[in-house]
Description:
This protein is mostly helical. It contains five helices and no strands.
Amino acid sequence: MSSKNKSHGLLSSKIFALLSLFILIFLGVSLSRELLSNRQLDENVISLKDEMNVLESKNKELGGLISYFNTADFVEQEARTKLNLQKLGERIIIVPSSTEQAVSTDQAKQKTELVWNDVTAGSNPERWLNYFFKH
């Protein structure tokens, strides 16, 4: 009976209770770390899947651009705009926009006024000196 008493005394001792408490705390901390790690991994998987979806949509878009770039229409358009090529019998007419015309008209008027002011300013010998030495 002494062995039963020792085992019964060991189970009810303070050392056993502290040891059991330490083991439970250790297991609880380990479990919480694993749960936190799993949650972070799940969040990473979700963000990577989202990124993968974005990249797949960009890949499809780029694939569409590549297929458009390989068409004859694109090649013809690029040849016309960048290389100034034209088909046989075709004539190209470039019409400037209204803002370009207004700017060029204003600049022409200013140049004309400057030249006219230079021509009419001063006496005849002064104008000859300005003509030969000012320019």
